């Protein structure tokens, strides 16, 4: 089963993303900030990370940088989802090591489609 | 003959630095010295402008956190206003750290709320909802309700809903349902409210 870590400080956002992904057949774990995500990634291999930007303790960019660093060293795809849609936000995400940056809100079908594409390389809608 | 105890050496008195020296140390190349200086400037109003000037410049997160901790302890309108400008920062670490600091300033943040709630940048209003989520103030819930009822941007409304939900009750049901009607095309907002309503009405 494909394992996803949903990282967001907002409980409602975690619930939303987790519910959609579980319904689509993913195995989902949750983290409330970047620090928790890094700790989880050091003990459990994940196939996909869905990461928010604005979080306490460790923000999303720092989280993704750490996931990509030698400390964790994961090559699993990272999808960043944020309310931030200013010029440069997406570039910052890609610099940190994200594979895709989406702006909230993300429709259910789109989230599942993107998660499937990032983890299998195939478009389920094709 | 009884044993003669050796006198323990007198402990060295800790070095007391004056404010000017501590302010100078805010620019020291050693981040640990900068952090210590920031913490030692606690309770010194004369240092506030210098500390505020460092918030946007400090690159070391632990030093920045020390600066913010010292500033937040003042809980004055000058500090709140000086910090609030960073809610619009392009740097995620800075804006979230500032939001956390503002959330510990119930004495001075309320005066800023009219301007924060009217900020033209909706991301600033999202960060304001994050501040209100943790602000220990009796009116925090009322401001969040106002955001949910009035803000024109769905991401601000969902951030306010997320901030309100841990403390929400049945009285908030109408404002939540009205938000869904205001943004019928927002799937997340509808999901969030649908998931929350049973708990609010005690049917979860």
UniProtKB/TrEMBL annotation, chain A:
Pfam family, one: Response_reg
Alphabetical UniProt keywords: Phosphoprotein
Residue span(s) of domain Response regulatory: 3-119
ATP-binding as UniProt keyword: no
Residues that bear 4-aspartylphosphate: 52
Keyword Phosphoprotein: yes
Protein name, as recorded: Two-component system chemotaxis response regulator CheY
TrEMBL record, chain B:
SUPFAM superfamilies attached to this UniProt entry: ARM repeat (SSF48371)
Superkingdom field: Bacteria
Positions of region (Disordered): 1-23
InterPro entries: ARM-like, ARM-type_fold
TM region positions: none
Identification of the protein by name: HEAT repeat domain-containing protein
Organism: Actinoplanes oblitus
């Amino acid at each position: 089963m494909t394992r996803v870590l949903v990282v967001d400080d907002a409980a409602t956002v975690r619930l939303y993303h987790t519910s959609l992904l579980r319904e689509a057949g993913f195995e989902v774990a949750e983290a409330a900030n970047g620090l928790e995500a890094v700790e989880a990634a050091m003990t459990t291999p994940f196939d996909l990370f869905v990461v928010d930007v604005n979080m306490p303790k460790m923000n999303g960019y720092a989280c993704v940088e750490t996931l990509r660093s030698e400390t964790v060293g994961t090559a699993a795809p990272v999808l960043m989802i944020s309310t931030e849609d200013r010029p440069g936000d997406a570039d910052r995400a890609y610099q940190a090591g994200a594979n895709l940056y989406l702006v909230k809100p993300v429709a259910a079908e789109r989230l599942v489609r993107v998660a499937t594409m990032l983890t299998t390389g195939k478009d389920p809608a094709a | 003959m009884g044993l003669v105890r050796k006198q323990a050496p007198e402990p060295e008195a800790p070095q007391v630095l004056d404010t000017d020296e501590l302010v100078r140390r805010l620019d020291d190349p050693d981040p640990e010295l900068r952090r210590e200086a920031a913490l030692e400037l606690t309770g010194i109003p004369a240092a506030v402008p210098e500390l505020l000037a460092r918030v946007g410049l400090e690159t070391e997160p632990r030093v920045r956190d020390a600066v913010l901790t010292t500033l937040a302890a003042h809980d004055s309108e000058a500090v709140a206003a000086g910090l609030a400008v960073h809610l619009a920062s392009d740097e995620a670490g800075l804006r979230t750290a500032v939001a956390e600091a503002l959330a510990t300033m119930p004495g001075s943040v309320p005066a800023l709320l009219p301007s924060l709630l009217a900020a033209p940048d909706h991301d600033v209003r999202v960060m304001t909802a994050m501040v209100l989520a943790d602000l220990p103030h009796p009116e925090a819930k009322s401001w969040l309700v106002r955001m949910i009822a009035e803000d024109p941007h769905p991401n601000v409304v969902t951030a306010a809903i997320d901030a309100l939900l841990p403390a929400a009750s049945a009285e908030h049901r109408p404002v939540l349902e009205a938000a869904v009607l205001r943004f019928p095309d927002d799937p997340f907002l509808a999901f969030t409210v649908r998931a929350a309503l049973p708990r609010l009405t005690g049917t979860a």
